[in-house]
Amino acid sequence: MEPFVNVTGVVLPLERANVDTDQICPAQFLKRIERTGFGQFLFHSWRFLPDGSPNPDFVLNHPVYRQATVLVARRNFGSGSSREHAVWALQDYGIRAVIAPSYAEIFHKNAFENGLCPVLLPEEQVETLLDRAKERPGYQLTVDLEQCLVTDNLGLKLPFVMHTDPETHAFRRHCLLNGLDEIGLTLQQEDKIAAFEQRRAKQGYLLPA
Known about the structure:
- The chain has 209 residues and is an alpha/beta fold.
- It has 2 domains: 6-178, Aconitase, domain 4 (Alpha-Beta Barrel), CATH 3.20.19.10; 181-209, no CATH class.
- The chain is 34% helix and 15% strand.
- The protein has helices spanning 21-24, 44-47, 85-93, 105-114, 123-135, 166-178, 182-187, 190-202, and strands at residues 6-14, 70-73, 97-100, 117-120, 140-144, 149-151, 157-159.
- A 7-stranded mixed beta sheet has the order 4-3-2-1-5-6-7.
- Strand 5 and strand 6 form a beta hairpin.
- The longest helix is centred in the middle third of the chain and has 13 residues, at 123-135.
- The protein is globular.
């Protein structure tokens, strides 16, 4: 997993609550067996009209937002099904961090385990960011996980957490900063695992090849 330390980039203001995973990556595009290539399907039903042409009213089709790396949305982002494809689509498009007042539990977990940084901020602060992004197309934010700060070039400094439980926040922060998913965490114990297998073998409990 790619480590996440910080990102500075254009904000994509998504002024919607309860954005579900079928809107992030619709079900008809889940047949791919790779984790890559899902960015083209991000928000597909909102980005495109029935005839396949771009929807001029959807924010992602405005040229200034096509290189966005920070998405700001309202509460309960990532509701719906448990598909990891929603996180993959965001990342494949170029989104490195999402800022919202709350997340659906499974999406929240999937974000951590795939290197997407889910920032939690109070609703009033999220509304401030959305307002600034609307007023200043191309508005940029820095999400700094080392300092746990969201900043802009206008003097804004917002401390953040990624989880309401301090221990979980600290653990997830460590994992993101070091690029550790569940496999990576397990491999940190590789020496202990090897020693355990050797002891088992000496005791006559041979593991299958």
